Amino acid sequence: MKRLLMIALCLLVLLAFVAGCSNNAQTPEDESPSAPASDDEDMGDEDAATGGGVIYFGLNYELTGANPIIGESSVKGIDMAVDEINAAGGIVIDGETYTLDYKALDNGFNTDEAAVNAQEFADDAGICAMIGPNDSDMCMATQAIVTEEGLPAISPWSTLVELTDSPWYFRACFTDDFQGEILAKYAFEYEDAKTAAVLYDMSNPYNEGIATRFREVYEEIGGEVVEYLSYNGKTGETDFTSQMTKIASAQPDILLLPNFYEEIITQTTQARDMGYEGKFMGSDTWGDTSLLEWDTENLLDGALWVGHYHKDVASDAALAFIENYHELYGTDGDPNDIVALNYDAVYLLKLAIENAQSYDREAIRDGLMSIETYEGVTGTMTFDNGNGDPTKSAVIIQISDGEFKYLDTVQP
Amino acid sequence: MNIFVQQFINFLQLGSIYALNAISFSMVYGIAGLVNFAHGSFFGISMYVLFFISTLLFQLIESTWIVYVIALIGASIVTSLVAVIVEKAAYSPLKNAPKIAVVVSSVGAGMALEYLILNIWGSKAKRMPDLIPNVTFKIADINVPLFKIMIVVIAIVTMIVLTLVIKKTKLGTAMRAVSQDRVAAGFMGIATNRVVSMSFVFGAVLATIAASLYGTAYTIFAYNVGENIIWWSFIAAVLGGIGSIGGSVVGGFIIAGISILAPIVLPVSSYKDIVAFAVLIIVLLVKPTGLLGKKSIEKI
Amino acid sequence: MKQRNAKNTITLNLIVVAVFFAVLIVIKETGIIASSTLLILQYIGIYSIFALGINMVNGYLGVFSLSHAGFMAIGAYSAALSTRYFFMAEWMFPVALIFGGAVAMLVGLLVAIPSFKAKGDYLAIITLGFSLIVQSILQNVRFVGASKGMNNIAKYTNIYWVFAFLLLAIFIVSRFVNSKYGRSLKAIREDQTASMLVSVDVRRNKTIAFGVSAFLIGISGGLISHLLGYTSPSAYGFTNIVDGLVMVYLGGMGSILGSIFGAATWQALVQLLKDLGTWRWVVGGGLLCLIMVIRPKGIFGYMEIKDLIRTAKERLNDRKQGGNTNE
Fold first, then answer.
1. DSSP secondary-structure letter at A90?
2. B266 forms bridges with which residues in the sheet?
3. Rounded to whole angstroms, how far apart are CA atoms B129 and B61?
4. How big is the A-C interface in CB pairs under 8 Å?
5. Which whole-number Å values give the CA distances from B226 to A67, B254, C247, in the listed order?
C-alpha cells in the first residue's frame, strides 16, 4: 500500500518542483520599463557588475483578493518612480550606471502567499530588496522571513507599530501610534471636542491600532470617549445603524472613523440618519478623492483627517508627481496615498543604494538607516529612531466645498 | 421612541434585502437541489450591470423611475443569461454526481465570475446612482428617506408576485413539483431540465432586485460585494427552512433583527457576530430543519 | 505464508518511508531546491494533514461540515501559546503540536453533538457558525493579540516535522478507516437508519470521527503557526473554509491519496497561476469547474489505494493477455 503512496508523493514533490521553479516573477504586462525581465532564479551579480546592468527589487503586492485597489495603486506609484529614475539616468554606483527594474508577485491578500513571495525574493540573489506588502497583516507574515534571510524590506503603507521591530523592515509612512496621537490632540485642541466616539473595524489591526491609541491619548489629555464601538469588516458589514444610534444618543463632539474610505460614506450617511450632529474625523485611509465624488450630500463638510501629503504644501517634486500622474492615468482623481507612498518607497531605495554605493542587501539596510533627510512627495522623512520608522510630519486635511483642503502640518 | 421607530425601519430595510437574497438562494436550492456558491457573484454582476446601465441612461434621461425600471430589466436579462450559462456549463453535467461536486464547481464558477467583474470594471469601488428619487419625508418627527420605504414596498411586492407565480401558474406548479420530487415530476411529463433552468432565472431576477435595493441603501460597492451576501443568504435560507419561501423571509428578517439588535443590546459591539451565530446554532439545535422547514421523512 | 506477507509489507513500508526521508534530508540540507520551494512543500504537507482531517468528517462520514477553520485556529493558537509559556524547548515541539491537536479534539467532541439531530445543510450552518465564532473570539481577545494576531512564535516547523506528522496522519486515518469504526462510518454515510438497525452506535462513531478530524486539523494549525512565527485570525475565516472544502472534494473524498493530492493540486494552482495577474482566478475558477465536471467524484473519488493497485494490476494483466484489444 505504501508503495503507491510513495509514487504518489514523489509525483507531488515533482509537482511542487514545477510549481516552485516555474513560478517566474514577471513584471505586470503593461507598465514595465525598458529593462528586460529575467526568468532565471539566479540573476547573477556578475551581469550587473560589468558596467550598466540592472538592479532588481521585488514587489510584493495585493493585486487580487479583498482589496485589489491597493495593488493597483501600488503598481502605479512604483512604475512612475522606476520610469522616472531610469529616464533621469538610473542609479550610479562607482561611476557605473544601473537601470532599476522589479519583479512583481501578487500575494492575493493571503498571508501564506505573502510569505512565499518574500521567500522567493530572498532566494533570488539578484533581488536586492523588497517593497511591500502594503497591508499590515501581509507584512507581518513576511517579517520572520525578511529578518532571517536578511532582505531589506520597505512597506510603503503599513502603519502597524510591531512591523519595524525587525531590523530589516522599514516603512515610508508614519505609524498608528503617531496618527492616533495626532488625531486625539487635534480633536481636543483644534476642534475643541471634549467628548468623542469611535467606530472602527475590529478585524483589521490598522483600524484597531489607531482607535486604541486615539482613546489612550485623548483620555490622557482630558477628553472623554463616550462610545467606543466596533464592527467586523471581514464579514462585509454594511449596516452600522445600531452603533450609530448609540452614538447619536450620546452626541459626542466628534466621531472618529479610522476606516477604509470605501466604507466612510455609508457610515457617515447612517450617522446623520440616526441623528448624529457632530463632526467627523478620519485617518489616512480616507486619502482617495473618490470619497469626495461619492459625497453627494456634503455630509463630510468640515471633517478633518490625517494624511500624508497635500498639494498646497507639496514640494515642487510633489507637484510634478501629481501632474505626471494625471498625464499617465488621466485626470479622474488625484493620486491617492498608496500611489504616493509606493513612489516614495522606490526613491528611498534608490537613495539607500546611492548612500551605500552598493546594492548588496546589508549595505542597503545600512543605507536606509543612515538616511538623514529625504524629501519625498509625501513629506520629509528622517530615519533617526533607531529603527525603520521614519520621523515624518503629517498633514491635517479638511474637507470643505467638496475638496480636500490643507489645514495644517503636524511635526512629530 | 424615535430611535425605536427609526431602527424598526432599518430593520425592515435590512430584512427585506436579506429576505430577497435568501429566497433567491432557496429557490435554486429547492428546485435544482444544489448549493449555489456562485450566487454571490450573480448578485455582484447584477449590481455592476445596474450601475453600468443606470449611469449610461442618466446622461440621457432624467426621471429616476424610468431609469430604474429599464436598468432592472436590463440587469435581470444579463444576470439570467449568466446564471443559465453557468448552470449549463458547471452544474447540469454534475446533476447525477454527489452533491458535493457541485459545491466545488459553484465555488469555481463564483470565483471566475467575480474576477471577471474585476477585470472588466476595475478595482475602484463604485457608487450606485440614485435609482430612487432623493426625497425625504417627515413622519412623526423622524426623517424617513423615500428609498427606505420603497425598499420595503418593492420587496413585499416581489414576494407577493413570486408567491402568486408559484401558486397559480403552470410554471410555478411545475417548480413545486420538481422541488418535491424530481424523479416523479419527470414521470409526470414535466421538463425538469427546463424547470431547473427557470429556477436559475428566477433566482437571478430576485438577486437583481435585491442588488438594486442594496445599491440604493448602501451605495458604495466593489467587485466582491457578493462574497458575504452568499453566506448570509445561505444562513437565512437554512434558518427559515430551505425550499420554503416563507421560511426564507422569516430567516432573512431574523438575521436582520440580530444584526440590528445586537450592537444596541451588547456591551461590546464586537461580540455581535458571536451572539448572532450562537442564536443561530441554538435555533437549529432546537428545530433541526429550520423554523418553517418541512420535516423530511427518511425512506428506509 | 500470511505472516511472511505481513512482515514483507511492514519492511516494505519502512523502506519506503526511509527512502523518502533520505530524499528530504538531501533536499533540505544540500539546498538543491530553493527555500521558497521548500516552503511550498511544507504548505503542501501541512494542508495535506488539514485535508485528511476534513476528510474524516466530510468524506468518510459524509457530513457537510464547515468546522475546519475553527479547529485549525484552535490548534494554531493553542500550540503557539503552549510553546510560548510551557513547552518552550525545541525538542518539546511535538508535544506542543499534540497539545494543540488535543485541545482542538476536545472541542471537536462537542461540535459532534449537533450532528446527532441536525442534518445536511442545517448542520453545515451550525458548523459554519462554530468556525466564525472561533474567529470572532480570537479577534476580540486581547491576550492572543486580537486582530493583530500572535507574533514572535517560535519557528519550530520544518520539513521533517511536517513529514513526520503527515505520516502520523496517514497512519491514523488508514488504521481508522480499515477498522470497524471506519466501516461503521461508511455505513452511516450510506444509510444512517440502516446502520442503526444493525446496532451501529451512530452517536459514538460520529463523536469519534469529529474528534479525530479535529485532532488532525488542530495539528495542521499548530504546524502552520510555527512555520512563519506569525498567525492572525484573518487566516481562519471564509477563505479557509472554502479552501479546505475545495482541497478535499477536488482530490476525492473518502480517499487518503485524494486528500493529499487535493492539497497539492490546490497549492500548485495557487502558485502556477500567479503570473496571470488579475486573470488568475478567472482561469483558476474555470479549472475547478472543469476538473469537477470531468471527475465529479474528485480526482481520486472514493478510491483507496488498494483499488488503485487492483486497477493497475488488472490493466497490466489485460495488456499481457489481450495484446491488441483495449488501448
1. -
2. none
3. 13
4. 162
5. 14, 20, 23
Can you give the pTM of this predicted structure?
0.89
Alpha helices in C86-179 (DSSP H): 93-112, 114-117, 120-140, 159-177
Residue B10 has pLDDT above 90, yes or no: no
Give the separation between CA A341 and CA A390, rounded to whole angstroms: 12
CA dist A213 and A183 (Å) reads 9
- Write out chain C residues lying below 8 Å of A147, CB-based: none
Report how far residue A263's alpha carbon sits from residue A232's, in angstroms, rounded to the nearest whole number.
12
The cell 485524494 sits on which residue? C258
* Cβ atoms of A406 and A395 closer than 8 Å: yes
Backbone φ and ψ for A305, nearest 5 degrees, come out as: -145, 160
Amino acid identity for residue C49 in this structure: I
Query: What's the first-to-final CA gap in chain B, in angstroms?
Result: 56
Q: What is the pLDDT of residues C77-91, one digit of tens each?
A: 999 999 999 888 888
Q: Is A212 on the interface with C (CB under 8 A)?
A: no
Q: Say which range, A130-134, A200-204, B76-80, B178-182, has the weakest mean pLDDT.
A: B178-182
Q: How far apart are CA A184 and CA A341, in angstroms?
A: 24
ipTM of the complex: 0.87
Nearest CA in chain A to C154: A144
Q: Say how far apart CA B57 and CA C29 lie, in whole Å.
A: 65
Q: Which band of pLDDT confidence, cut at 50, 70 and 90, is reported for residue A46?
A: very low
Please report which confidence band the pLDDT of residue C3 belongs to, taking 50, 70 and 90 as the band edges: low
Cα radius of gyration rounded to whole Å, chain A: 22
Query: Least CB-CB distance to C249: which of B96, B101, B281?
Result: B101
Judge: B277–C133 Cβ closer than 8 Å, yes or no. Answer: yes
Which residues are C327's β-sheet partners? none
* Three cell numbers written together for B66: 424610468
DSSP for A340-404 reads: HHHHHHHHHHHHHHHHHTS--HHHHHHHHHT---EEETTEEEE--SSSSPPEE-EEEEEEETTEE
Q: Is the pLDDT of residue C92 over 80?
A: yes
Cell 503617531, located at residue: A178
pLDDT tens across A281-322, in order?
999 889 888 888 888 888 898 899 998 878 787 778 888 898
Beta strands in A37-138 (DSSP E): 54-61, 91-93, 96-106, 127-131
- Of residues C21 and B21, more confidence is placed in B21
**pLDDT tens digit string along A1-34?**
444 554 555 555 555 555 444 444 333 333 333 3
- State whether B6 and A294 contact (CB < 8 Å): no
Report chain A residues whose CB lies below 8 A from the CB of C234.
Answer: 111, 137, 203, 234
Torsion (CA) B286, B287, B288, B292 in degrees, nearest 10: -160
Q: What is the pLDDT of residues B247-277, one digit of tens each?
A: 889 999 998 888 888 877 777 767 777 887 8
- Please answer whether residues A280 and A222 qualify as being in contact, where contact means their C-beta atoms are separated by less than 8 angstroms: no
Of B214, B208, B241, B187, nearest to B29 (Cα)? Answer: B241
Residue type, C16: V
pLDDT classification of B242: cutoffs 50, 70, 90: confident
C-alpha cell at C289: 469547474
In angstroms, what CA-CA distances link B279 with B248, B254, B262, B284?
17, 10, 11, 9
- What is the end-to-end Cα distance of chain A in Å, rounded? 67
Q: What angle do CA A292, A294, A297 make, to 5 degrees?
A: 90
Distance CA A10, CA A361 (A): 36
B284, C250: Cβ pair inside 8 Å?
A: no
The set of residues, in sequence order, having a beta carbon less than 8 Å from that of B17 and lying 6+ positions away, is B151, B155, B210, B213, B214, B217, B252, B256
Instruction: Give CA–CA dist A329/A333, Å, rounded.
Output: 9
